[in-house]
């Protein structure tokens, strides 16, 4: 059960100016294996960051399905 997420351009900005309503904090991982050493931040070493995705359903809908994104690393 995978789907392609379009390329996302990460543009820095001031957090106070963001409209953070009706979004899902989607975790982004380095690999599909959601494991790694637990860092002092409380996140796995496999975890990269959260991306905020606009949603029209409750955030729990996506959390219960374990929706996450994978980072494609080009070497």
Model description:
- The chain is mainly beta and 75 residues long.
- Helix content is 8%, strand content 23%.
- The protein has a domain at 19-68.
- A three-stranded mixed sheet has the order 2-1-3.
- The chain has one helix spanning 59-64, and strands spanning 23-29, 47-54, 69-70.
- The two termini are 26 Å apart.
- The protein is globular, with a radius of gyration of 14 Å.
Keywords:
single chain, mainly beta, three-stranded mixed sheet
Task: Provide a quick synopsis of the model.
With about 80 residues, this protein is mainly β.
Strands, total number: 3
Structural class: mainly beta
Tell me the major beta sheet.
3 strands, mixed
Q: Label the overall shape.
A: globular
How would you state the average pLDDT, rounded? 83
| Rg from Cα | 14 Å
Give the CA-CA distance, first to last residue: 26 Å
Order of helices and strands: EEHE
Query: Residue share in helices?
Result: under 10%
What is the count of DSSP helices, taking H or I runs of 4+ residues? 1
């Amino acid at each position: 059960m995978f789907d392609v997420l379009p390329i996302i351009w990460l543009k820095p900005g001031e957090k106070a100016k963001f409209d953070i309503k009706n979004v899902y904090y989607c975790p982004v991982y380095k690999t599909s294996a959601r494991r790694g050493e637990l860092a002092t931040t409380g996140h796995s070493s496999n975890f990269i960051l959260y991306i905020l995705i606009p949603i029209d359903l409750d955030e729990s809908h996506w959390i219960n399905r374990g929706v996450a994104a994978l980072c494609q690393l080009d070497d």
